[in-house]
Amino acid sequence: MRKLGYSDHLATGSIAAGGTLGILIPPSVVMIIYGLLTESDIGKLFISGIIPGIIGVLFYLLAITIYVHLYPHNAPKTKRSLPLKRSDITGVIAVTTLFLVIIIGIYGGIFTPTEAAGVGALISLLLSAARGKLTLKNFYDACLDTAQTTAMIFALVIGAEIFSNFINFAGLPDALLIWISGLDVGPFVVVFIILLIYILLGAVLESLSMILLTVPIFYPLVLSLDFGNSFLASEFSVTVWFGILVIVVTEISLISPPIGLNVFVLRSVLNDVPLATIFKGIFPFWIADLLRLSLLFLFPIFSVFFIHSP
């Protein structure tokens, strides 16, 4: 993107924001965790994430279109492309092969999503060697970058876990539950307040910790609400709808300052790009995510369409 003339704002913002879509589009580890916490059908949760995932992609494309229209200097002024080389073609084939092996392996039951990460790393190593890209220096640099990135991620996760425990010991989750339960408002207003709480928590908590801490508290409350809606008439419909909303909020938390995990991971890879630049580039996508969250909140059919289809 740099070679084609894209600014660091747009390039890093699109990469960091696009990386959040994997949480919603199957196979999703976060969705599996939500399914385990709520004892729900994980397969149907996966299917329900397809339409919200597509909406997320379309909203991101719309955000890029509007951003480039308002700030045209951040994107190439012409439609020129770089000359296509043989190495480009082999690179695309290698990446496609890696993708197919991982997806077929996961859905074929050959290995779990966690094991797929190790398999993917091994295949990437073999493909690099086959293409003549695996020199001793490159291998050393890859190991060093991996160690640095892993250490940074664990530092963030451990810090977030400690902070989560302090919040739990302080009784904040129980206090939130008592406060929300005591409000004399409609069910959609209750869910709206919960989403606001999630957005605030997402700015200071690691996403997985936030889900593990809050879903067991908020889920029974949401399940007890009477929505009086044909799309939310069953408990499972409410479970799916609330789960999609929680996962979208989790996506937002991954690019929300000050603990936007995707931002810090990207920063560790791009040492010459300041954090402020990445956060600035993320802003249009952050707005797009909020609009998508609003759409899914107001129209539950987008989340429960497939489980209502014959």
Explain this structure.
The protein is mainly alpha-helical and 310 residues long. It has helices at residues 8-18, 29-38, 42-48, 50-70, 86-107, 113-130, 136-169, 172-181, 187-202, 207-223, 235-253, 261-269, 275-298, 301-308. The protein is built from 14 helices and no strands. The longest helix is centred in the middle third of the chain and has 34 residues, at 136-169. The mean pLDDT is 81.
Keywords:
310 residues, mainly alpha, 73% helix
Query: Any idea what the radius of gyration is?
Result: 21 Å
- Give average pLDDT, whole number: 81
Structural class: mainly alpha
Low-confidence stretches: none
Compute the number of helices.
14
* Secondary structure tally: strands: 0
Quaternary state, please? single chain
What's the arrangement of secondary structure elements?
Elements: H1 8-18, H2 29-38, H3 42-48, H4 50-70, H5 86-107, H6 113-130, H7 136-169, H8 172-181, H9 187-202, H10 207-223, H11 235-253, H12 261-269, H13 275-298, H14 301-308
Helix pairs in contact: 1-13, 2-10, 2-11, 4-13, 5-6, 7-12, 8-10, 9-10, 9-11, 10-11, 11-13
Task: Quickly describe the structure.
The chain is mainly alpha-helical and 310 residues long.
